[in-house]
Design a protein that fits this description.
- The chain has about 325 residues and is mostly helical.
- It has a single domain, classed as P1 Nuclease.
- It has 13 helices and 5 strands.
- A hairpin with a 5-residue loop joins strand 3 and strand 4.
- The chain binds zinc ion.
- Zinc ion binds next to helix 5 and helix 8.
Length: about 325
């Protein structure tokens, strides 16, 4: 039986599913605090059930990335985190802050967690159409990579902006790789599609199935650090090389291809069982791995002064 996500995880007005519940259960805790994201460590006995997997997934992505940082990359992360007024104890723990901050002092970042493709079933993402207000996850990744790369010199405000940028960057690279964060607007990224997950008596949103129930059943959220270590160890050098591009829009197109394919390919009776789950498992693992590899690539190149982002819009 799957652990239940926090109350409010389902009925939220956001394509973020269980992720938004971090804020939903602590609505007064937003703002710039880095400590309002639940227990500081996933995996300790009795703690895992209080942390939505979506939080653990972000921690896994950032821990995979951290393991792949160059010395200069680690130095940059340490320097930037030291400028944070309320630094997280470790980099992987900083990557869930974005989900609570959007209810506080960073409400303008709400749309940065996803992209809504406005034409259902469209062959392809069109940035000019689907991100017309420049408020989608692809823009967020590019923006915070640029902020992280900008030398704040002695300017205190810019140093704080850079500290926030690192936390946002780690989070949004993860969001972009969850397929339903690049979903259809009509369905709010799977939040309006209801399915039955195995023998769960409650109908769940398809979004929450991908955010929480599948990874939970996979056992990934019980210990984020252990999951990150395993997944990182299973990345071949060839995979890492193939994934290592700066093509942010291309990364999101991969998510969208899954939305057009296996994500909505569940039985007509809306019952999700072994067939669907077995198909999703390698996808979830690969997306976490890809996000970690690419986040490390961004940070390493920013640290080396060699960041090269292609244009997001044609
Ligand atoms: Zn998010």
């Amino acid at each position: 039986m799957a652990l239940a996500p926090p109350s409010g995880a389902e009925e939220i007005d956001a394509p973020d599913g269980a992720i938004a519940a971090v804020g939903a259960v602590r609505p007064g805790d937003g703002g710039t605090s880095g400590r309002n994201v639940g227990p500081g460590r996933v995996g300790a006995a009795g703690v895992a059930g209080t942390v939505p997997w979506a939080a653990a997934s972000h921690q896994i992505v950032c821990e995979i990335a951290f393991r792949r940082l160059t010395d200069a990359g680690r130095e940059l992360v340490a320097t930037v985190m030291a400028d944070d007024p309320e630094p997280a104890p470790a980099f992987y723990e900083s990557c869930v802050w974005a989900d609570s901050s959007r209810y506080g002092g960073h409400q303008s970042t709400y749309e940065y967690h996803f992209m809504n493709v406005v034409v259902a079933g469209a062959d392809q993402i069109v940035m000019e159409r689907d991100c017309a207000a420049f408020d989608c996850v692809q823009v967020a990744v590019a923006r915070y990579a640029r902020y992280l790369a900008a030398d704040p010199a002695g300017n205190g405000a810019l140093r704080e902006r850079r500290a926030a940028a690192l936390k946002f960057l780690g989070h949004f690279v993860g969001d972009l790789h969850q397929p339903l964060h690049v979903g259809y607007a009509y369905d709010r990224g799977g939040n309006d599609t209801r399915v039955r997950f195995f023998d769960d008596p409650e109908m769940r949103s398809l979004h929450s199935v991908w955010d929480f129930y599948i990874p939970d059943r996979m056992g990934l959220h019980a210990d984020a650090l252990a999951s990150a270590e395993r997944l990182d160890g299973e990345i071949s050098a060839a995979d890492a090389a193939a994934w290592g591009t700066f093509d942010i829009v291309g990364w999101s197109r991969e998510s969208y291809e899954m939305v057009k394919g296996l994500v909505y390919d569940f039985p007509i009776d809306s019952r999700i069982g072994d067939d669907y789950f077995d198909g999703a498992v390698p996808v979830v693992e690969r997306r976490l791995q890809q996000a970690g590899v690419r986040l490390a690539l961004l940070i390493n190149h920013i640290a080396a002064g060699t960041l090269e982002l292609p244009p997001l819009f044609d």
